[in-house]
Amino acid sequence: MNFWQEKFGYGDFSQAFDPKYGDPYPVPIVMATEETLKGYGTIVTDFDKEEVEIVPWPVQGWRKLCEDTGTLGGTLSGLFKYKWQGDLCTSVNEAVVEGNYVTGKLPKNVSPKNRTHVLVKDIGYHPDGSQMFYPQNGEAFVAILALPGDDLTLESFQAFYCDGSFGIHIHPNVWHQPLYPVADEAVFLNKQGAVQGYVSADTVKEFGKFLLLPLTKPQ
Question: Which of 47, 50, 42 is nearest to 162 (CA)?
Answer without folding.
Answer: 42
